[in-house]
Amino acid sequence: MSKEIGQSDESERKTLPIEKGFPIERVNEIAEKEERAKRHYRPIYTMHKWWARRHGCVFRAISLYTLLDDYEDITVHEPGKNGTLSDYRSNSGEIQELLESVELANPESLWKLYPKDVRVEDKKILDPFMGGGTSLVETSRFGAESVGYDLNPVAWFVTKKEIDAGQTDLDELEEAFRQVKEDVSEDILEYYRTPCPNGDHMADVMYNMWVKELDCVSCGSTVPLYKDYRVGKGRYENKGGYNVLCPACESVVFVEDWKEESTCSECDHQFTPSEGNIDRGYICQDCGQKYGVLDGIQEQGGFDQRLYAVEYYCPTCDSKGLSKSKVKGYKAVEEEDIRLYEEASKEWANSDELKRYIPDERIPPGIKTDSTLFEGSIGGGHNVLRHGFKQWKDMFNDRQLLALAKILKSIDDIENQNVSEYLLLALSDALRTNTMMTPYQSSANKSNHIFKSNSFDPPQQPVEGNVWGTEYGMGTFESIWEMVVNGVEYAHNPTERYIEDGDTTESSPFSQKIGQGASVHCEDMRKLDSENEFDAVITDPPYYDNVIYSELSDFFYVWLRVLLKDEYDVFEPEKTPRAESIVANPAAQKGAAEFEDEIRQAFNTASKALKQDGVLAFTYHHSDVESWGELLSALCDVGFEVTATYPISADTHKFFEGEAVSFDIIIVARPANERDPISWNSLRRNIYRTAQKTRQRLEENRDLSRGDIGVVEMGRCFHEYSKHHGKVERAGETMTAKEVVDEIYGVIQHGSDIGEIDVFLDLLETPDASYDDLNKLSRGTNATPERMEDMRLYRMDDGFTLGTWDDEKRIAYIQSRVDSDEELTDLDKAQFLRYRWEHGKSVSEYLGEWEITDDLRELCEGLADATGDDTYRNILESRLSDF
């Protein structure tokens, strides 16, 4: 019978708190709030975009429950108070009690230290897939030596600036920004003015709204590609209605219901704003001809773009105290708006010196840029190249290129390399919203960013934001710079937000700065040659084709490369690494099999780098049972055993309805000890008991959903399997990890099929089994003590005696059933054969009469395991198979 996690012998390695339990409820309630307010919870992660970034609170909790294993190596400082030692340090026995009190039913004892400035001694941590750097940042806050690897230069640069932030001088940053502002801001802002509709003065442009145009293939008319005529939702006193564009006079007017027929207040034209001229193609407003947008773009050699509306903010009207709807609103385009764009375009055409600050790399063919070029798919139609974009700079208009080049040139003049890199970081992140690849979200009165769908989706109505920025507007260079500064300030004085008595509380600043003792490397982690070096590997590895990082990150890379190619070798190539990326990408001739092979290589490298008593803890995304099997197989093949899994989120209904499930989970694994062979019959019973015990304890003591409980059950069951990986025998065949996962999934979804024979085998494995043991083992199963007594599987006439093959009364019971030709169980058959084998009696007549099933083979393997009597296995392997 299996031993529960947390019951390690003194001679074995320490069981870590994260293996015994994890405060899922506490982490999730913070994660939910952090998702909505990243800038307030952990501003360091909002300095620059990275994809699929995990919440900081998740990795802080993982670090807390993973790195804290010896109370003598832990110091706890009170946030604020100049980092003085807390009361916990004066009573190290209390810390020891917190560590030892963590258990599955109640893991929250250690949670008391979550908002504390906790330090650990002599811990070296590896993140081989650091991505946006969350694990490095969080582990560095514990005083650990944190080492990160990532193949992608953009990920490396973003994380480098995160861990450098705590050692960066804020005054130097502010002075450098002032220099850039004085240098170029007014030049840029002059191109983002518009005549204010409320007087004879100019207002600031927040957004210029553009529409693409194609020619009608029948009559030659110019067709604007409006999906509908919404400009922006009504605000302030105009809430409930919409500002819309009149397709006749091109005025911006207000209507109560954009889905109903409306009358233009300027020209009396009647139209329905929801009915544009895009419907699986574009429709000519003059002749009604319908044609495919992509076909039109390719046949006409591209598309034109026309400015049709402006969202403005007027500082003059604001200072006069005018109503909010006049201070900030929408207006039609005027000649001055067109003139300013033409002026900017003319300046750009004549700015040869500035053009060297604009990337001229071509957009490489890829699954995210033209999926039609490759066999295989990752879902969705990705065809930015077919939309007429050839170079990365084609995603920007002339005014944007002029503004961005001016800022880049000014950044290039900053002598302090570290400081200039933070300005470059801000500019790079501002690209997301300052490109003609972003649409305007009229229902929310704001622009989106280019990676809203983690792909390149050219909009038919792109929006051009104010690159430098004004009082309002999303993703301007100035507002992104404020986010960078906030991130650096946080790195100097990190705090922790947590829930206390139902309310969100923010701690005082910690004295441990972010990034101390951390280092980052831009290379393939599979080249890491470390052995027995790291105490923990904490990471978030890639998942199949979830995000094609290399292709998406090229959008940032080519701009960063302008200033960094002479500083860092990793920015010399024209694009980010493709072939070496661990991802299922048809454009690189990589599918699921290649991904699984490469992630296995990565886990193997991590296994070698880890100390024998170390731990691997990582977050992962799953979508189906097969993914669990692949992951479990990969981990076990390279020498790990899974010891726990916990949900971050899961679709609980699908989990128990047997459908495909999307999981975000935490997986904990340790280097495996020597693995023992086991029969599937024995392992199945262990798995069932483990799942049953886990579910019961969680249901009785935790406020978790069924889906969450199911994920924890999976982890406990995986641990049972991991101890025997590659040595699980069923009917003479070795089971694969995938086959076992299928069975485990069934146990968790459908519950018990444990019957009398299974309970009997459990009793055989129980030292000095008693009637009390029988009662305990029968609970929650399909077996009852009464039925087992009827089957003569035990008797009470001379104490509690099991009905084994050498028990006279048990054999007499079986013999009577054989003689009267009654139906026999597989256990009856196995014990009867064992008895006759022992006494040298012939078995051939019975073998000829009975069907030798896989169930009988599996039972004999289980009996051999339970009793240590290999005669059962010998019967199976010789007499039965020979027959």
Question: Which features would summarize this protein structure in a list?
Answer:
about 900 residues, alpha+beta, 7-stranded mixed β-sheet, 6-stranded antiparallel β-sheet, 32 helices, 31 strands, about 15% strand, elongated, disordered C terminus, SAM-dependent_MTases_sf, coiled coil, DUF1156 domain-containing protein
Characterize the main sheet. Answer: 7 strands, mixed
The SS-based structural class is alpha+beta
The first-to-last residue Cα distance is 33 Å
Total helices: the number is 32
List low-confidence stretches.
7-11, 650-661, 878-883
Relative helix content: 25-40%
Could you characterize the architecture of this molecule?
- The structure is a single chain.
- The longest helix has 22 residues, at 680-701.
- Among the domains are: 752-803, no CATH class; 805-883, no CATH class.
- The strands form 10 sheets. It has a 7-stranded mixed beta sheet with strand order 22-4-3-23-24-26-25, with helices on both faces. Strands 5, 6, 7, 15, 16 and 19 form a 6-stranded antiparallel beta sheet that branches. Strands 8-9-10 form a 3-stranded antiparallel beta sheet, with no helix packed on it.
- The chain is elongated and about 110 Å long.
- It has 883 residues and is α+β, with helices and mostly antiparallel strands.
- It comes from Halobellus ruber.
- InterPro entries: DNA_methylase_N6_adenine_CS, DUF1156, SAM-dependent_MTases_sf.
- Pfam families: DUF1156 (PF06634).
- Residues 22-73 form the DUF1156 domain.
